[in-house]
User: What shape does this take?
Amino acid sequence: MTEALLQQLLNGLSIGFGYALIALGLTLAFGVLHIINFGHGEVVMLGALTVVMAGKLGLPYLAAVPLAMLVGLLVGWVFDALAVSPLLRRPEGRTDILLTTFAVGVLFNQAVLSVWGPAPARVDGLQGRLEIAGVGLTSQRLFVIVASIAALAALDLLARRTRFGVEMRALAQSEHAARVVGIAVRSVGTRAFLLAAAVAGLGGALLAPITSYSPMLGQAVLIKAFVIVVLGGLGSAVGAVTCALAVGVIEAMLGLVMEEGLAAACVYSLMLLVLLVRPQGLAGAPR
Amino acid sequence: MRMLITAALAGLLAAGTAAAQEVKVGVLYPIKTMLGQQGRNGAELAAEMINANGGVLPGRPLKLVVYDDNYQPADGVAAARKLLSEDKVPVIVGSINTAVSLGITQVAQQGGAMFLAAVTKAPQVTDYDRAFRFNPLVATDGEVFNQYLKDKVKPQRLAVVVENGDYGRSIIANMKAAFGNAVVATELYEILKQTDFSTLASRVKTANPDVVCMAFSAPEQGGNLLRTLAEAGVNAKRCILPGSVTPALIQVAGPAAEGAFTLDIWAPTMSTETNRKFVAAYQAKYKAAPGKVDFLGFESMWVLGQAIRAAGTATDPGRIATTLRQGTWDSPRGPLKFPGNQATSEKWVALAVKDGRIVVSD
Assistant: This one.
């Protein structure tokens, strides 16, 4: 029984770290710009598609991972140019961004469908598997955990130690105050959005060997990411990461004793409960 | 002025006859998905081959009107209504999902149209006498498959892994009835939504089966499932219920698909003349080998073409339906009859994955 629990803990953690990167991008865009990016899932899908394509061209998986971040960045730039920046200039534009990002997401999804079709594809990530005391972990899952921790640490460093990070946090606290002290609010906001997209691309590249690539991948992960972000508190990075890990582990553990559909329903019930009794999320500031 | 009007009228009339010459047939698949595209590819290839052979009625080619049912009953019903009211088709062909095909059956029945359910296994479809099912019922699959398992594989500890829906749950009921206490684990996963199978694989491993039976409708999920089972160290024989061992599955699963086996109504290697023609034309058109859904998409349209030709009408769905029910038709899987509106052929083939290819085993 302990073996099974330990095994599920590892499985849950590896998938939870994947969720964390995806949820972090969402919450970053909300925290800094106060917008919800409904096309975020498609950026993840394009990150996964990048490693598929790179594999077909003979590029090793590890080399394709940074490429997926770059693709995420570029796609983020398109999202920003079409669906975010033009609306931020309007006084009441923020709520419309929900719809414009959704529209651009659909455009990307349809473009992928018409160019590459709906066929799924396997991604051969890192090969091999570790086995300790009856508990196994594939190298790819271990890599997801390690790479996610590294990425999260790098992001934390960026937020605390760089000028951009400080400006970003200032903007998150109060746009008005940030403007008063001379921060280029527009440009910092755009860069934060691009950063979120690059992280989404990374998330797609890391998850692809586990989940396989499919054009539907974006929609499948987006819902989960939203649940996590709402649980953690919209805009809270710490909340997103801890709740992502918690959701991954809870789902895996519940999966031991019940059907996975029911396990997912439990997580959604948790979200409902949080929204009812603590609407700012578990780690969010009261509002 | 008068001449102008006459010319315009003549033009309209000419356009009218040109349109009337084509025999329109409605096609509904979830075309944004892998399976839906396969069904559509098969149907389009059949129409092309029928038209290259002179069409369905003297001088009248088939024209397919294709809409997306999006795996959603509401979308399927809306599209079926549009096909009957605006496109005025006498026949609707296609549909994969059970709920969608039930919706289409209802719309067809209200409009008196014919419905050829190409891929769905829903039993209720044929309650309507102008609706025909091409894929065998789950119960039929089960009977043939369980007999094969009992005769050849003889499972002692059987794990059943299926998608959470009508289809999956009926398989579990079937297997429990056939194997009783030998069924040591039953697992359900969420259709399309589930991307990680590690928890499920751990549970299967704990049950320690000697045979794992699986069914899935999305190859990305089936492929992931096979890979995750292998990663978790499940060494049982893996059998897959009819219809899911496809090139796409092997592409996603990779080496993890090796040795998996299945039984089916059709295989690309079957040696009928029509099958050879179908497989060759499919390869030429789509640069890939056809799978089961491509075959069903093809077969339903191919048989419809013959039935319209034999009935001699494209406007009387009742007569086409009666003709179809009474005749014996040519299909890639051999001669096909429709007792109780169910497509039925004599032969089933045993298939296995070997060196990344689907081969006929014994």
